[in-house]
Predict the 3D structure of the following.
Amino acid sequence: MSMLVKITLATALILSIALPLFAFAMGEKTKGRYKTALSINVLLFFGTMIVSSVLMFQGQAVAAETAAGVTGGVAGMGYLAAALSTGLACIGGGIAVSAAASAALGAISEDGSILGKSLIFVGLAEGVCLYGLIISFMILGKL
């Protein structure tokens, strides 16, 4: 990929986030405008990501004659798997912690004796992120 394409894609990604935010900030802040700005933001961002992935992965198909050529693609998929396992685990852990921590704070405010039990549940929710990180380290160790 040439430097011009990289600069263009970086600019498009920045604009896909900044323009809907700027358009929403300049107008009247209603729920409908928020949903419209958010949908335009998502559409532009993922559209740019699809175009960039097409540009990034295009090229000439060459048959691999050595095992080294094959391992490059496998290593790329391994890095992608490690990133996805960490990222998705952290998103799930964040959702779990948000629910568990808010419920724990409400319960602790009514009865302070259940602090230990509530901390265990919040810690279990945070453990999901650590499990994803451990899996990504295991994947990276195999590459």
Observations:
- The helical segments are 3-26, 31-57, 67-110, 115-142.
- The chain has a mean pLDDT of 80.
- The chain is about 85% helix and 0% strand.
- The longest helix spans residues 67-110.
